[in-house]
Every structure is written in C-alpha cells, then in structure tokens.
Amino acid sequence: MSVYSELTNKIKNKTAVITVMGLGYVGLPMALEFAKKGFKVNGLDTNERRINNLKKGISYINDIDSKEIKEALKRKPALNATTDPNIISQSDAIIICVPTPLRKVKDPDISYVLSAAKMLKDYMRSGQIIVLESTTYPGTTREIIMPNLEKNGMCIDRDFYLAFSPERIDPGNPKYSFTNIPKVVGGFTKECTDLAKLLYSQVVTKVVGVSNPEVAEVTKLLENTFRIVNIGLINEFATLCHKLNIDVWEVIKAAETKPFGFMPFYPGPGIGGHCIPADPIYLSWKAKKIGFETKMIDLAAEVNRKVPHHMVERMEEILKQNNKKLADAKIFILGVTYKRDVNDLRESPALDVIDTLNKKKVSWGYHDPFISYLDISGIKAKSAVITPALLKKYDLCVVLADHSTIDYKMIKDNAKLIFDTRNIFAKKNITGENITRL
Ligand SMILES: NC(=O)c1ccc[n+]([C@@H]2O[C@H](COP(=O)([O-])OP(=O)(O)OC[C@H]3O[C@@H](n4cnc5c(N)ncnc54)[C@H](O)[C@@H]3O)[C@@H](O)[C@H]2O)c1
C-alpha cells in the first residue's frame, strides 16, 4: 500500500497517532480535541512545568477546564504529555504550534520554528504528514521546514506530506472555539492538501483547501493585518472624537446601523496578545526583504503603539478636571491582561500604561482575577482584593481589561473617579457622574 493510502486509512479509522508540538493556547485545545475524537495523541512541549501540570491534570489555559485534561488522561487511548522528542518517530501526523514572537528589535523571532524543524529532522521517519500552524511570514514552511525534512534524503509525496494551516483560535471567545472556526490548509502538492484536509476534518466543522502553503501563510497575515489597521483607525478616531467633544461610542453605534460596507471596531487602551501586535510585523519584515514598503501596517502599528501613553494623558486630564495632579494621585487599574477573560499578559497595553505611570513616579495598584502577581521587567505587584474601602483609597480607577467576573456596580458605587477604556459600564447599563469613557 502507498504511504498516501496508508495515512488516509489511518486517519479515517482513527488509528493515526497524532503529535502536537507546543501545547499553548493553540496546541492544547487542538490536542484535546483529537484525543476526544478517539485518536492517540502525544502532546510534546519543551516546557517541563507545562508538561508536569498536564500529567497532573492541571490546566494552565483559561478556556480549558482541568476536568477536560483529566478526562483525556483517563481515556483510552490516553493523552500522552511529554518532553521526549522520540515520540515524533512513533507518530503519523505532527502538528507544530510553537511560538512566533518578535525580538526586542521588533524582527520576527523564528527560533522556535527552527528548533521544531531541527527536532523533525532528527526524529521523523517516512510515512508522516507534518503541518505547521505557527503564524509566520510567507515562505517559512518552504524555506525552514521543508529543507529539514528533505535532509534525510526523504522526498515529498513519497515519504512525507507537508502543509501549512494557520490557527485562528480566539481565546476567551464563548461563541467560536477551535472546532467551529473554519480551517484553511495549503499543502505543497494536491496530496499534501488533501491529507491535511482529511486530518482536520476529523476535528473541525469546515476545512478550506488553498493552492499552496504561502497562500495559507498570508491568509492569516491578511486577517490580522485587517484587524491591526482597523483597530489603529478606530483608536485614532476615538482620540479625534474626544478632542472634538463627540462621543465615539455613539458614532460607532449609529454607523453600525448601515446594513452593508461597515464593520464595527472598538477603541481601547491599545493592542496586545501574541497575534495582533506581532503578526503584521512578520509580513512587513518579509516585505522589506523584497524592497516593498507596507505603509498601512507600519502606520497602524505606530498609531496603536502610542495608545497606552495616550491613556495616561487621559487619566491626567480627568484628574485635572477634578483638581488633582497625576503626580499626587493614586491610580487603581482594573484588568491587566491584554483582553477580557484571558490569563495572557503578552504585549498587554496595561504593561505600557504601568511603565508610563512608573516613569512619572505615580502610585498605582491593580486587580485582575487572572493575574495574582505581576513580575515583568522590573514591575512587581500583587493583585488586590477589591473592597469598597480599598476603592476609596484611590483617586482614579481605570478599566483596562473588562473581565466578566468584576462587580462593576460595586466599582461605580465606591470609586471616586472611573476611566472606562472598554465601555463596559455602558454595556452593563451602569451610569454615574464619576464615570468617564474613552
Ligand atoms: N494565542 C493565540 O490566541 C493564537 C491564535 C492564533 C494563532 N496563534 C499562533 O500560534 C502559535 C502558538 O501560539 P500560542 O499562543 O499557543 O503560544 P504559547 O507560547 O502559548 O505555546 C507555545 C508552546 O510551544 C512550546 N515550544 C516551544 N518550542 C518547542 C519545541 N521545539 N517543541 C515543542 N514545544 C515547543 C512552548 O514551551 C509553549 O508551551 C504562534 O505562532 C501564534 O502566533 C496564537
């Protein structure tokens, strides 16, 4: 039997062994979903702490209940969480979900993809399908993964199959999860795409094939560039509306009544997370390599970068209107993660706000139900328990992440002044003279 038919059969009858490399926000939900469908799944991660937690049935990702992990460990076949790369050779399908952050100089940090590719080279065998999911610049699958797989004398479509499939998961989104977000796959050949489509169709409701890995790579970058540009636009618009003394939230609500040609984006304290601040930069970096200037991306990144600093200016303004100087004020921050209901601090605008407050020597405290301690680049603090007495000690309470477990009515009743950068009070129909929204 050909390698292709063998893999097809194994996927169809669920005897294919699947290894997910990188068990983070992307890899862990996917590994659990394949396990739920009856596949034998190996979860491979270089982070021993994460693997030890998984072995004990403890989740470190918000959207995943520890119960789900415990069930996967008990099920037959059981989820195998490991740091041992030897399991690569025992797998039929390998899905790579390693990080693709930015370096300090804001260039793509492709080191995790390189280390994953090196592991594949050292441990892969013939008869496997490999899919890269990490968001990256066009050409990564071809230029980094492919040469490592071919190094052992193995040949695509004869010994292995290779595709790129971007992950579109949106942590904290109660409506769309891994299974009901359509998956795009682009293989090097028709056989690669067909096998990758078959693999994902076991766990997601819709799979869309595209002609090659580069199309799939850029699809993800278009989606996130669309977001960074529109978020930049609405953040700039919000600043302008504030200066014109016009309520930007009311403007958006009115514009939304147009049934076509408009899609609402909302202003906030700045962009964060592992995707929106980083992914478009992967594209602009690649564009620069071929002498193309991505003006829209660069401008959106610049506009968004300034937003946290602008939030501090707004705080200063609100305090001034209440006869208080920022330098003498005590600020309380509600929510430090990059968005609501996630435990992810990566690139969070709250960190820039805090950094600016520190530079201005302003006293601050915070509460975040997901982050008990802050210990990042010299920032050390403990999440405070919110009580009426605590709120009364602060001059201004600033909502930076609108977590759903926070009692906003209690905040409104007890905080002296509130700056709401997320419009959460209006969404909850809570009004008060002490509330200023972005
Ligand atoms: N977080 C999101 O919302 C999201 C959404 C869509 C796409 N993505 C993309 O998916 C990728 C993964 O993101 P994430 O948020 O899950 O990252 P993460 O940091 O939460 O998880 C990645 C994991 O990979 C592990 N790892 C690193 N090198 C490894 C190796 N060689 N072998 C095995 N494990 C290794 C790390 O220890 C970590 O646990 C990134 O490219 C990201 O841009 C993320």
UniProtKB/TrEMBL annotation:
GO MF annotation terms: NAD binding; oxidoreductase activity, acting on the CH-CH group of donors, NAD or NADP as acceptor; oxidoreductase activity, acting on the CH-OH group of donors, NAD or NADP as acceptor
One Pfam family this sequence matches: UDPG_MGDP_dh_N
Q: Give the Gene3D superfamilies listed for this entry.
A: NAD(P)-binding Rossmann-like Domain
Q: Which UniProt keywords apply?
A: NAD, Oxidoreductase
InterPro entries under this entry? 6-PGluconate_DH-like_C_sf, NAD(P)-bd_dom_sf, UDP-Glc/GDP-Man, UDP-Glc/GDP-Man_DH_C, UDP-Glc/GDP-Man_DH_C_sf, UDP-Glc/GDP-Man_DH_dimer, UDP-Glc/GDP-Man_DH_N, UDP_ManNAc/GlcNAc_DH
Q: Domain UDP-glucose/GDP-mannose dehydrogenase C-terminal spans what residues?
A: 332-427
GO BP of this protein? polysaccharide biosynthetic process
Protein family per UniProt: Belongs to the UDP-glucose/GDP-mannose dehydrogenase family.
Q: What is this protein called?
A: UDP-glucose/GDP-mannose dehydrogenase
